[in-house]
């Protein structure tokens, strides 16, 4: 797995201008939601679309809650991580301080959903963000709002092995 030092170095390079429509890089290879090398993960792929980030996602049996239905925690994971892609557009690292998810309808395994997230307001270190999820052209099945707080890179030193 990539060391924290390598990750910090690569992270700096990830904060650059991305063209509209560009695919945004995963947070790191083993990120639970977007890491391509995490066998338990969601393998979320995310694009910039204007000031928003978008993803198309299908939950599978690894993320089951009630039979046939995605676990609410899995849905929250994906929505939270999608917010983490807005940071590429805002240009600085931040972490979730508060996350609220509204589950409007069951999220069905094997069904394709579209997700979009946006920054609705910033106040100093605070980023207020929102995201929604639906089948194409359908009603919202889940809606999330969150407060992210900008942090210095030293925040991530707390994850070093003890
Ligand atoms: C450039 C290099 C970056 C290096 C990165 C390298 C590796 C990492 C790689 C990838 C990971 C990075 C990003 C991933 C992105 C997305 C993944 C999804 C997101 C996550 O998975 S992320 C994990 C879960 N997350 C946490 O692990 C946070 C744990 N937590 C803390 O570490 C602290 O909690 C902290 C630092 C967040 C804040 O601590 P703090 O002491 O600095 O700030 P404090 O609490 O004082 O709040 C400040 C102001 O917010 C107001 N405030 C607070 N709560 C409020 C509320 N509920 N409503 C309204 N206002 C509120 C206060 O009232 C005050 O307001 P005011 O300043 O106006 O008084």
Automatic annotation (TrEMBL):
SUPFAM superfamilies: Thioesterase/thiol ester dehydrase-isomerase (SSF54637). GO terms for cellular component: cytoplasm; membrane. InterPro entries: HotDog_dom_sf, THEM4/THEM5_acyl-CoA_thioest, Thioestr_dom. This is Acyl-coenzyme A thioesterase THEM4. It is a peripheral membrane protein. It is found in: Cell projection, Ruffle membrane; Cytoplasm; Membrane. Keywords: Apoptosis, Cell membrane, Cell projection, Cytoplasm, Fatty acid metabolism, Hydrolase, Lipid metabolism, Membrane, Transit peptide. It catalyses: dodecanoyl-CoA + H2O = dodecanoate + CoA + H(+); (5Z,8Z,11Z,14Z)-eicosatetraenoyl-CoA + H2O = (5Z,8Z,11Z,14Z)-eicosatetraenoate + CoA + H(+); octanoyl-CoA + H2O = octanoate + CoA + H(+); decanoyl-CoA + H2O = decanoate + CoA + H(+). Belongs to the THEM4/THEM5 thioesterase family. It holds the Pfam family 4HBT. Residues 68-139 form the Thioesterase domain. It comes from Nocardioides luti. One of its GO terms (biological process) is fatty acid metabolic process. It is an enzyme of class 3 (hydrolase).
């Amino acid at each position: 797995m990539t060391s924290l030092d390598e990750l910090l170095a690569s992270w700096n390079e990830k904060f650059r201008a991305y063209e509209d429509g560009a695919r945004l890089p995963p947070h790191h290879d083993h990120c639970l939601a977007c890491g391509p090398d995490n066998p338990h993960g969601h393998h979320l792929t995310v694009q910039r679309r204007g000031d928003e980030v978008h993803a198309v996602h299908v939950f599978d049996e690894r993320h089951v809650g009630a039979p046939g239905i995605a676990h609410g925690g899995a849905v929250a994971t994906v929505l939270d991580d999608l917010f983490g892609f807005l940071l590429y557009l805002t240009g600085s690292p931040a972490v979730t301080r508060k996350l609220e998810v509204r589950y409007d309808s069951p999220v069905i395994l094997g069904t394709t959903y579209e997700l979009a997230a946006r920054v609705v307001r910033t106040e100093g270190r605070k980023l207020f963000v929102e995201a929604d999820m639906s089948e194409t052209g359908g009603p919202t099945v889940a809606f999330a709002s969150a407060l992210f707080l900008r942090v210095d890179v030293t925040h991530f030193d707390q994850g070093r092995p003890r």
